[in-house]
Each structure stands twice: as structure tokens, then as C-alpha cells.
């Protein structure tokens, strides 16, 4: 018995070390009856029996043997629990559960037990209860992803690849309504929407979601719980800010419908600052603990890597966090092994007395123990020196590194060739383009998320300005760069054949030439002054790249300013 217990303890220790790589997915019976700790049907039933405050909404299709009619019957809490516990016809033909078995009680999982991962737990409580990442799990995955992005080269590169490919130099927005576009440019400028989108592109990949807070009442800064006499700065143009998703402890919704959001709960301390400050000769607190609820109409919430009825998104790194750690460990062990192999020491034998040994030591310390290249060591036969290296074979190809990189690349949907490791070489241009096509589709889906974010902000600004519904077109960088000359020729042919307008062809050509401040109306005015040169002569022009979202078009050149 004692030996078995000892073996069980050893096995548990080994498993704990292995499972530390991944997010916890093993089943352990809950030690407390807490909704967040429930992992099985029996635990849920026990909680319902003990806690009368939990609402039970039970309606079943029931058959009445007397009247021989079938209908919907609403069950009370007591009736529901009795019907479920008995596993047989409790009344009116109601049968909520079949025979008692492992699957019926969530008693186990699937797969073979072993040191490399225990039985994976598959919860049998369906619906959003188990789909959702609750606060602890969400914070854990978000912080693990944040750490990986800052300290893991592969994770850092992966997220940067997603941001750089999908957004690149920025987006472009066009609209036929010049007045509406002028208002947007003003909003875009005061909120630095181009820079905001770069942050969003990174953070939505990092955290799996992003939250844009439309500040209420013309606020230009986030001010929560202002001190006595502290003024909240206000301006003409609306302001938006990004909320760190990890400060949102809960998104409170209707129990049955997660899309019906009641409010967001912000609970977190602010950044620590040593000194407080003054604003207009009034003190500003250096540190706050914030507890605030935010109405849903003020938050634009976007999430990725989730299914229906999930409140929170998941990081792009979520599936590969375990393999990222395995890869780091593999590389660390290999580097330590190489360091040991590269290390050496000198074994010196001196025949003589302790005084002879000390004289030799003093002489070496005076001249240095490492002799310069080409130097000569002169000694008597009583002194012998030899260099000793660390025994061990040379490290060749590391299959662990290759396997982990393959799993990470597969989980991220990014070809290995993109990461710049020693596994990246050996590809021809043709094979590289083929490898790019699947990830391009993945990036297109992410660009669709960006487009929704921008168009939602556009609609918000249009409503604020009183324009109502105004259409706009959002353009992102091309994901697969084709031969530029050939593409420009294709544009010329399409325009000449009448398939696309001159304006669309010119805008697409400007995009290919990385001209981010191109405006067709202004350019056409300049062209008209010189005579109609035609699109074919217009295309070869070039301009120094500038920041996206450049000058206001044509008649809308009067800037809308907000000096606050």
C-alpha cells in the first residue's frame, strides 16, 4: 500500500511538470459548490439543490397518458430535480436522463492515460456555460500571451507578421461625399485612427479581442471618479480610446442571450506613478483603483477565435502556448549543452614542492592564463600542461525544435518560412507564393474585422455630424504582391476596355505605387491643366510616401479643427 502510494505521488509529480506547459484542461471534482467551479452534471444538480437563488427555467415536452395529448409542461425546481435524479418516468411521461454511466455523470474523458498528458476532460454540460472563458482563464491566457509576445522571439514574430501583413502602412478610406470625408479626416486626425488601428491589429491578435470606448459627453480624456474641482476636458470632435481587455472583469448579459449586453465591468488599479501632478493648478491623483460599469452603447467590442455564444475572444497564440514553452526549453537545453561543450580548462602538473607549484601559479597570474595565438610555452619536463574539453557528442539537427516549430506554424496558420529560422530556407519563389495563399485567406478574414471596426467608427462619426447613412470604401494593403509592372498593365487594359472607371484604376495604381495621400480629384485637376494625358501616361508618376489619410479632397480643403 505504501509503495503504491509512493508510486502514485511520483506519477502525479511527473504529470504536474508535463501539464504545466498547457492551459489546465484536466478534470478535478470541485471542492466547493461555486458556479465557476462546477465541472460536472452531478455538481450542478447539487448546487441547484443547495442554492435556491439560482433560477431554473425548465420546460419539457410531456405526454399525458390519460388524455393522450402531448404538450409543453413547465417544471418547478423540485419537479425538475426529481425528474433528472430518477432517470425514469417521473410524471406525465417526463424523462430527463437515461441510465447512469460515465458519460451521464461526466466521470471521465477520452484517450489513454499516460505521462504525456492525462485524460483530456470533455465536459458534457453543453452550451455557453463551458464555451466561455471566465475571468481567471481569460486573464491567464491574456497575460501568458502578453508575456510570450514580449519574451518569446517566435511569438513576437508571429504577432508582428499578422499585424504587418494585414495592415502594413495603414488603411485608406474614400467617399464621394466630400463634406462627410472632411469631417472624418478631422476625427481621424484628433484620434490618430491610423495609429489606433496599428494598436488594434496587434492587440486583437494578442488578446483575441479589442474594445473601443466612445467617450461620452464630448470628453477628450478618460476621467473616472474625478477629484473635487477637477475638470473633465471636453472638445468638439468625439474621442475614442482603447480599453485594455484585462481590466474588464465581466461582461454582464442576459443569461439566455450573450448578445444582449447590459454593461461592462471595469475593475483594476491604474498604472503606478511615484509623483502626482497638477492640471491647471489642481492636483491629479497619481494612482487609482477603478470600479466602474460602462453602458454597452459606449463600447465597440470585437473578438476573434471564438464560436457563437462566447463573451470573450481568444488570443491567436492560445493554441500554441504550450508548444512555445516546449520550444524555448528545447533551445535553452541545446544552448546550455553547446556552452558546456565549448568550455575548457587547463590541467597542469608540476613535479616539485609546494613552493614550485606556487611559483608557477604566480608566474601564470602575472602573464595571464590564456596565451596569445602563436605564443610559445617553455618549461622543464617537470611541468605538463594540457587542455581539457567537456566530453559529449556534437549537437546536430534537433527534431524537437522542428516538431515544435511545425506545431506552432500550423496552429498560427503561418508558414515556417515566415519566421526566419534555420528551417526557413530552401524555398523557391514559386513554392513561397503557394505557401502564402492559405495564410493570405486567413489574413483576409482579419482585414474584414478591421474593415468592420473602421466602418463602425465611420457610421458613429456620420451620425454625430448629422449626415445619416453615408457609404465609404476602405482599402487595405495587398496581401500577395504580384509583379507590379504586370498589374499596372492589367489595370490599363481593364480601364481601356471599359471594365473599370479611370478613377478606380488610378486609385488602384496609386496603391500599387505606395502613394498613400493620392486624391483622384486633385490629381485630375492638375492633369486637366496640362491637357488630357490619359491614364497610360498618368501611371508612371511617383511620389514620396507620406502618412495615410492625407490632404482633404478638392472643395473640402477647409480643415475641421479641434484645439482642445
Essential attributes:
three-stranded antiparallel beta sheet, 40% helix, alpha+beta, 13% strand, 564 residues, 16 helices, extended
Instruction: Note the total helix count.
Output: 16
User: What structural category characterises the helix and strand content?
Assistant: alpha+beta
Low-confidence stretches: 5-19, 24-30, 98-119, 535-558
The counted number of beta strands is 14
CA(first)-CA(last) distance: 77 Å
Kindly state the percentage of residues in helix.
Answer: 40-55%
Describe it for me?
It is a single chain. This protein has a domain at 19-125. With 564 residues, the protein is an alpha+beta fold. It has helices at residues 2-19, 41-50, 77-86, 128-131, 135-151, 153-167, 178-190, 193-207, 321-342, 354-367, 399-412, 429-465, 484-496, 502-512, 520-529, 535-538; strands at 58-64, 69-75, 172-174, 209-214, 240-243, 248-253, 261-269, 277-279, 282-284, 289-294, 299-303, 344-350, 383-389, 473-475. The strands form six sheets. Strands 5-4-11 form a three-stranded antiparallel beta sheet.
